[in-house]
User: Which sequence fits this backbone?
């Protein structure tokens, strides 16, 4: 048993050690860096089951004042670790593309950091999961974002990557500005940055509603950018398409999970106030509706699969926001909103990662990202085709997949809260989703391939694909383990005394 | 211990199916071993449960969405379950053994045994389920495995078509079944048998809903147990290998409908209307199928119509309130009908896949064991005194006699016809001299095929006696079997119709025998009685074809117009157009210019500020 913060420290130390090793090593292949990274993260994942819990009494100067380690944060940490490992596996397969797009004097030069930076993102995500104070939350979020800035623009010979990097940097900075501004307003009004203390202040001290709402708009703008909510989604298609594919996958899973976790945490203290809650939920419902419609409809005419997946990422943010918009109003009986969002994010992680892994392999091999490059994949590489079929079905929401259950829970929340407009938008957009997701499936299974050579897949990647497929089916049929974990934490955090 | 055994019974065949279909499909011998092992374990566990009168219930929550919907995967073993378990695993085991030889030279032997294991798993799931939702899942699964097995020789067009027909026809019934489950769930808030029973008052307080729910549930049985008007799939299902016909389409799956009715009888009982409908459908099926059976020439088809007819009798039994008697008949019928099918399989096997009884004859001498066991099965089915069928049929007749004279009349006439067509079958196929060369060189099959016949023949002889049946049913249910008051006129009438039917057929058909094999096919003797209405199965297939085709044509042209002009033109194209247009328009927002994005971003902030602080 050891303090949970050691997990983050271990990941960071691994990152630093690898950076140093990379700069002094003379080896041209940087693949071992990724392998060491995956291995270390695996260890940290195992260690996460043996951490001690938070102390009952907290000193004034202790880090426990802004750090918590309840089981929901541990669960998110594990999810972050697994995601990063998946991304590193993808990065290994992506090395050839990377090397071509980086100006270098000798082969392999300059690719090293690409395998190391995800570790820092991962540390940021893990810290974020534990942050119960706005300042730490902000610092962690920026650790995530800044490492993403670098990774998005990593392929310096590719115009698309550079353009994506610049767009992400400038718009990201803009949104960060709004977010920090919002935090200062909250601090100005309540004099606190700790979530629980803010909640206490909200309950006890007289305050101006308009000022708080103003602060919350600013925070929502900042987080809306992270989770790709309309109207702050502009950057998503361009950045997702331009970034190296493993980074796109990481952005789409990690950045979104971080955003939603923080969104739930930040909103919680304010939803208890009866004069504020309806207005906040109205704005959330508006964001959810706009995001659902935009994400799913704009995906319809897409022929580029990477771009299609980026719109799909916006669409799924819509469903998640739909669940968030039910916070506090949902009647009991269908589990908490927290567990719904948690399960949805988990399912989204499985199916998105799977989709991107296969997309990355096929597009690298057939040198194109259009849907027609996937024609007849079932005849060339049945495993890849089946994996993508499962991923697309789950994203669309076919029963017996994890994606279906996630949508089911979200809709159940909406029904319980009486969000009928959102619900009908949700149903219509799911219909649209079936169209564009299954287009990919149709191309793979019905069209004739232009080449017949199977696509080589490494053993490691095959294992990851198999595990993800199995996970999608397992949690689609039996979602209880994940739901129970989140449910349990909801109970625990309700009982936990505020530090 | 009991619940461990019950789970073992359920999961062994699943493991076997999974192993065979994913790993062992290359090796025939290995898949046979796995499959036999699984069914052996299941049978042993069942025997233990039966002899110890084991009772248990065990379930775990599958989907828990609060009080509104809680689905569990659970098993329940009681007296009723044990009877059905014994039928399924017992006959299942015999059929497995028999199939090892029957399917000897088949290319897809491994696939066959894999599907057979899948069927065992699905069927046992129905039997063990402690709630309607789980039962429905397994209900569909037996549909799938039945589809796979009927279509085992899928390269044969008729087999593929028959598989489709069976599956689609069942879907109609299953739709009703599902509606019934939803109705019951909506009214009582539970899909578990115990929960429904607890909340039954909410259903009985609304007689209309009760009847509707009962009849919807009955629809499931109409499909699976092939009752009129959905009976058409069963005769065609004879395209499957004969062991499959014996196991699935005679002894177990088609009886699932009757078992289900017995399980949910407490829902049906309060509604007299529902019971009358059930009794009528059963009686009509029994009678119509018996008429059709008198004019068939294919040995398996005769047996198939006979199965239909007997299933009708069981359903009618449930309809007159005697579900105990229906279960008793299901139990005895399973033995002698499986015996008859396996016997027919032996004949077909020996005659190199010849199924026309008019090309057989004289098999009594060349296949003595098969003949003897087949004759016992026939006598048991036709209701010869002292054999199993006599007792169980008597129980149903007795209940009908007290309850509904019309149903009793139909059942009695059915018995007469049963004696007639079965005797016809035996006289033409087994007695006299061989009609063809093939029939002359018939021979008994290897032990793996004859031993199951002998075992089943023994069971067909004793299954009706109290000492045997009571030990399996348990005293409580066995009491249900014979709860109707005794009336000596009923057995008298039953024996009379048996004698009349048998003698009648003997007199009509003994003249068709020949002295030596015919040289040409055209010289073969013909059926002296030809009734086109029966031979053509009341033209029901033709009627459906015409009805469906006619309705389809009219509807198709009408809906074609609506579809082209209104739906496609206005609604679909309209909606799709709007959606696509919206998609394109929304895509225009993605113009790629950074300053523009920042501007939109700012606009978004203003909109949110307005919304929140207005």
Assistant:
């Amino acid at each position: 048993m050891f303090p949970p913060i050691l997990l983050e420290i271990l990941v960071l130390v691994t990152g630093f050690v690898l950076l140093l090793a990379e700069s002094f090593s003379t080896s041209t292949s940087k693949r071992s860096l990724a392998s060491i990274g995956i291995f270390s993260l695996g260890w940290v994942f195992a260690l996460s089951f043996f951490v001690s819990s938070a102390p009952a009494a907290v000193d004034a100067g202790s880090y426990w004042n802004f750090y918590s380690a309840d089981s929901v944060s541990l669960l998110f940490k594990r999810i972050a670790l697994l995601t990063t490992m998946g991304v590193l596996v993808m990065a290994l397969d992506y090395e050839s593309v990377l090397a071509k797009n980086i100006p270098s004097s000798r082969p392999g030069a300059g690719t090293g950091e690409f395998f190391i930076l995800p570790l820092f993102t991962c540390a940021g995500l893990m810290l974020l999961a534990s942050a119960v104070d706005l300042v730490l939350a902000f610092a962690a979020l920026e650790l995530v974002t800044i490492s993403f800035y670098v990774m998005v623009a990593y392929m310096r010979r590719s115009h698309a990557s550079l353009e994506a990097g610049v767009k992400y940097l400038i718009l990201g900075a803009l949104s960060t500005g709004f977010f920090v501004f919002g935090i200062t307003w909250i601090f100005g009004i309540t004099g606190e940055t700790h979530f629980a203390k803010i909640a206490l202040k909200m309950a006890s001290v007289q305050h101006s509603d308009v000022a708080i709402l103003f602060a919350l708009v600013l925070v929502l703008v900042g987080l809306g950018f992270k989770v790709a909510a309309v109207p702050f989604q502009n950057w998503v298609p361009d950045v997702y398409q331009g970034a190296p594919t493993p980074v796109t996958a990481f952005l789409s899973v990690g950045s979104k999970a971080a955003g939603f976790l923080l969104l739930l945490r930040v909103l919680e203290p304010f939803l208890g106030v009866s004069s504020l809650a309806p207005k906040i939920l109205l704005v959330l419902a508006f964001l959810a509706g706009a995001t659902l419609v935009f994400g799913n409809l704009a995906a319809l005419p897409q022929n580029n699969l990477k771009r299609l997946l980026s719109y799909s990422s916006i669409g799924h943010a819509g469903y998640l926001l739909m669940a968030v918009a039910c916070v506090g109003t949902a009647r009991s009986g269908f589990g908490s909103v927290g567990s719904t969002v948690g399960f949805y994010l988990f399912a989204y992680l499985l199916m998105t990662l799977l989709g991107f892994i296969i997309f990355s392999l096929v597009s690298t091999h057939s040198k194109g990202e259009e849907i027609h490059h996937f024609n007849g994949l079932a005849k060339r590489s049945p495993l890849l085709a089946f994996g993508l079929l499962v991923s697309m079905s789950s994203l669309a929401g076919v029963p017996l997949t994890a994606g279906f259950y996630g949508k089911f829970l979200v809709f159940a929340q909406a029904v319980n809260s009486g969000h009928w407009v959102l619900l009908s938008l949700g149903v219509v957009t799911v219909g649209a989703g079936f169209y564009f997701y299954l287009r990919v499936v149709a191309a793979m299974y019905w069209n004739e391939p232009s080449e017949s050579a199977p696509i080589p897949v490494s053993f490691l990647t095959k294992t990851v694909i198999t595990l993800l497929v199995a996970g999608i089916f397992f949690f689609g049929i039996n979602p209880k383990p994940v739901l129970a974990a989140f449910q349990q934490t909801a109970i625990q955090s309700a009982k936990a005394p505020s530090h | 211990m009991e619940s461990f055994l019950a789970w073992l019974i359920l999961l062994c065949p699943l493991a076997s199916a999974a192993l065979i279909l994913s790993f062992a499909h290359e090796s025939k011998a290995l898949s046979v071993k796995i499959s036999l092992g699984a069914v052996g374990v299941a049978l042993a566990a069942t025997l233990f449960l039966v002899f110890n009168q084991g009772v248990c219930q065990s379930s775990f929550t599958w989907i828990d969405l609060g009080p509104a919907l809680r689905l569990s995967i659970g098993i329940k073993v009681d007296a009723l379950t044990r009877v059905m378990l014994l039928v399924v695993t017992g006959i299942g085991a015999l059929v497995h053994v028999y199939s090892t030889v029957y399917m000897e030279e088949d290319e897809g032997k491994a696939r066959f045994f894999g599907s057979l294991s899948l069927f065992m798993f699905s069927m046992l799931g129905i039997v063990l389920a402690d709630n309607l939702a789980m039962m429905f899942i397994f209900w569909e699964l037996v549909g799938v495995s039945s589809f796979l097995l009927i279509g085992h020789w899928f390269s044969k067009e008729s087999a593929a078509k028959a598989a489709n027909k069976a599956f689609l026809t069942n879907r109609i019934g299953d739709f009703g079944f599902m509606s019934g489950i939803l109705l019951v769930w909506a009214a009582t808030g539970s899909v578990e048998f115990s929960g429904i029973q607890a909340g039954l008052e909410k259903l009985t307080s609304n007689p209309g809903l009760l009847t509707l729910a009962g009849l919807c549930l009955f629809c499931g049985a109409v499909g699976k147990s092939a009752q009129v008007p959905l009976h058409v799939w069963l005769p065609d299902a004879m395209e499957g290998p004969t062991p499959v016909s014996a196991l699935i389409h005679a002894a177990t799956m088609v009886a699932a409908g009757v078992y289900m009715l017995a399980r949910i009888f407490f829902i049906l009982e309060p509604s007299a209307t529902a019971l009358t409908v059930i009794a009528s459908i059963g009686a009509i099926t029994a009678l119509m199928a018996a008429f059709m059976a008198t004019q068939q020439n294919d040995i398996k088809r005769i047996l198939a119509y006979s199965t239909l007819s007997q299933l009708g009798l069981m359903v009618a039994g449930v309809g007159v309130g005697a579900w105990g008697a229906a279960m008793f008949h299901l139990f005895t019928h399973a033995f002698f009908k499986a015996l008859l099918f396996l016997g027919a399989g032996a004949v077909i096997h020996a005659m190199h896949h010849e199924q026309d009884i008019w090309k057989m004859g004289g098999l009594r001498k060349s296949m003595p064991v098969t003949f003897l066991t087949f004759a016992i099965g026939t006598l048991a089915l036709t209701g010869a005194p002292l054999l199993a069928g006599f007792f169980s049929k008597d129980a149903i007749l007795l209940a009908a006699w007290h309850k509904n004279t019309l149903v009793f009349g139909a059942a009695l006439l059915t018995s007469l016809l049963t004696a007639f067509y079965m005797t016809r079958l035996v006289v033409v196929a087994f007695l006299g001299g061989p009609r063809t060369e093939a029939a002359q060189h018939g021979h008994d099959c290897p032990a793996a095929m004859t031993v199951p016949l002998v075992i089943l023949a023994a069971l067909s002889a004793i299954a009706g006696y109290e000492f045997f049946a009571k030990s399996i049913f348990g005293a409580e249910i066995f009491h249900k079997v014979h709860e109707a008051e005794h009336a000596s006129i009923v057995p008298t009438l039953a024996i009379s119709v048996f004698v009349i039917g048998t003698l009648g057929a003997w007199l009509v058909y003994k003249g068709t025998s020949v002295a030596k094999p015919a040289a040409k096919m055209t010289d073969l003797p013909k059926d002296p009685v030809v009734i086109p209405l029966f031979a053509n199965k009341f033209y029901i297939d033709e009627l459906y074809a015409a009805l469906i085709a006619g309705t389809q044509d009219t509807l198709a042209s009408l809906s074609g117009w609506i579809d082209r002009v209104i739906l496609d033109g206005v609604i679909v194209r309209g909606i799709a157009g709007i959606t696509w247009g919206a998609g394109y328009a929304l895509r225009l927002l993605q113009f790629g210019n950074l300053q523009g994005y920042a501007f939109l971003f700012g606009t978004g902030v203003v909109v949110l500020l307005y919304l929140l602080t207005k």
User: Anything to note?
Assistant: Residues 540-588 of chain B form the longest helix (49 residues).
